[in-house]
């Protein structure tokens, strides 16, 4: 059982490392977002992720903008 758990942990680490390697090979563009007039400005990362629409709805416009500008 311990060996099985260790194997799963190693597989997870390998997957995370592969994801990081892939992400470092693509170009990134910085996007500044201002929630200055929003009550959600102090939790900006959660707002952008729109984890709960009723709570983080101010971030929906950010998500739609990123989708509109996404290039493959």
UniProtKB/TrEMBL annotation:
It comes from the Eukaryota. This is Uncharacterized protein. It comes from Rubus argutus (Southern blackberry).
């Amino acid at each position: 059982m311990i060996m099985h758990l260790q194997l799963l942990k190693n597989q997870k680490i390998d997957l995370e490392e592969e994801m990081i390697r892939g992400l470092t090979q693509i170009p990134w563009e910085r996007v500044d977002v201002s929630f200055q007039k929003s009550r959600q400005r102090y939790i900006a990362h959660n707002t952008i992720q729109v984890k709960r629409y009723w709570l983080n709805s101010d971030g929906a416009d950010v998500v739609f903008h990123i989708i509109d500008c996404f290039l493959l």
